[in-house]
Amino acid sequence: RGGTLVKTGFATHFMADLYLCQNQLWLAPNDFMEKIRDLASFKNISDFEWVFQSIEPGRIRISGEFADSFILIQVFPVDNFLTIDIFSWQPKVDVKNFSEALIQMFSPQVVATESKVRAEHLQVE
Questions:
Q1: pLDDT per position as a tens digit, 10-19
Q2: Cβ count near 27 (within 10 Å)
Q3: 6 pLDDT higher than 60
Q4: Which of 47, 54, 63, 76 has the fewest CB atoms found within 10 Å of its own CB?
Q5: Which DSSP helix (H) or strand (E) runs through 96?
Q6: Which of 81, 80, 75 is nearest to 61 (CA)?
C-alpha cells in the first residue's frame, strides 16, 4: 500500500507561557466560564466542555474541548504563571484568533508563544 507524504500536516499545536497574569480567573471558575462562553460565542464556537482540577497544592489544571480541539491550561497560582496548550486536529476554527483572545483574558505582562504543525509525516492514501 503506497502513500504520499502529507506536507502540511493534520494538526496544529499552539503553546503559550503567560507570566505575571493580572487577571487571576482560576480563582473564580464561574467568572472564567462566563468569559470563555462569551469568547466562544464571539468566535462562533459551540459545545464547550470544561474540567477544573486541583492537581496538587500550588497547581490547577483546566481542560476543555470544542469541535476538533483540545485545550489544556496549567496554572501555577503562586507565581501568577500559566501555560496554554491548544491541539486542533484538522482545525475547523481559527485557533490563532481564539488563542490570542484567550491569552488576553488573563492579562499577562509577558507572553511566549509557539505554534507547530503536527502529524506532518503521516502517510495518506
A1: 788 899 999 9
A2: 11
A3: no
A4: 47
A5: helix 95-106
A6: 75
Q: Which three cell numbers stand for residue 102?
A: 484567550
DSSP assignment letter at 46: -
Length of the chain: 125
**Beta bridge mates, 72:** 63, 85
* pTM of this structure: 0.77
Query: In this structure, what C-alpha cell is assigned to residue 52?
Result: 477544573
* Integer Cα distance of 120 and 43 in angstroms: 27
Measured between alpha carbons, how far is 78 from 58 in angstroms, rounded to an integer?
Answer: 6
Alpha-carbon Rg for the chain in angstroms: 16
* Cα 12 from Cα 90, distance rounded (Å): 8
- Listed in sequence order, the residues at least 6 apart from 53 whose beta carbon sits closer than 8 Å to its beta carbon are 60, 61, 62, 63
Which phi and psi angles does 86 have, rounded to 5°?
A: -125, 120
Using alpha carbons only, what angle is made at residue 84 by residues 81 and 88, rounded to the nearest 5 degrees?
180
